[in-house]
Design goal:
alpha/beta, 5-stranded mixed β-sheet, 3-stranded mixed β-sheet, binds calcium ion
Length: 372
Amino acid sequence: MMKRRLFLRQLGGGALLAGATLGAGCSDKDQPAAASAEKTSFEPVQWKMVTTWPKNFPGLGTGANFLADLITRMSGGRIQVKVFGSNELVPAFGVFDAVSRGTAQLGHGSAYYWKGKSEAAQFFSAVPFGLTADEMNAWLYHGGGMELWQETYARFGLVPLAAGNTGVQMAGWFNKEINSIDDLRGLKMRIPGLGGEVLARAGGTPVSLPGGELFTSLQSGAIDATEWVGPYNDLAFGFYKVAKYYYYPGWHEPGTTLECMVNQKAYEALPEDLQVIVSNAARVANQDMQTEYIARNNQALQTLVNQHNVEVRRLPDTVLERLRGLSADVVAELADKDPLSRRVYESFEAFRSQVIQWSNISERAYLNARGG
Ligand code: CA
């Protein structure tokens, strides 16, 4: 029953409109009156949104601000959301527990940070050689992904919402050339989630660190290399000052979904119209961030190359092929961790293997036809 309700409330505007029309057709006059009474009796609430990002960090932190502001304004101030940067209320990696406990009502991060809570969570942010941003949203909204994500978080008292996407990331910043897979051997690199596990299989040492610690770690030599996001965010952290080569493509994060998790009790205490506002505000934020990244990455790449003389390099095909093979192993093994991970894996893989066929004759064919 609960699952069904959440699912219905995350449907887009078209479905909501269809529902309203259906209601009118049945002349159920009690419904609008009941909804209106519920609306007026609701006391405004103050919600806290804790985030895994430095306060106001371009794209990620500002994306959290955008969503908080949208919820506040769309609700007419009935939900007032205050945003906290990492370490202001809780540390970056304390966000999941804080929202689960109800210390905060909202959390902004990415699901692969919580693999210690649930291995299956990793499928809902990024899978190496997995889905692009558009494909990811297609799986989440129209391919069964969202229901599986809700199931994954339900046992922690959380309702997940997709709330942003970075698009394809960059492979990262290195101080040595990567010419063969052996160049990754012994490399201590910040790379979270499944990508990190793939690096480990290639002989490297993956490190998981919050964004705010990356520059100094790279500068001091505590790590040899780092990935973060893409030109827009990487320029903001100034990695070009401490690393020589900027490699692409981001094989490990082909379209990373950011999340907004909602404390389930707080969500269920809302009248229906506010639940619809919260879930659809996240949907708007999801799309807004994706388009912002395309626009800003493009500008920032020009700045990195033309003003800071960054060397942008493509990972050799032989390296990508090897990483692709290792990734398939890592992702398949993730499915063996527990029954839920198995079901998420099967849904994800079935969608991926089918959507590749359409993407090949649509996006890929067009990009090839357009030329460079
Ligand atoms: Ca990343």
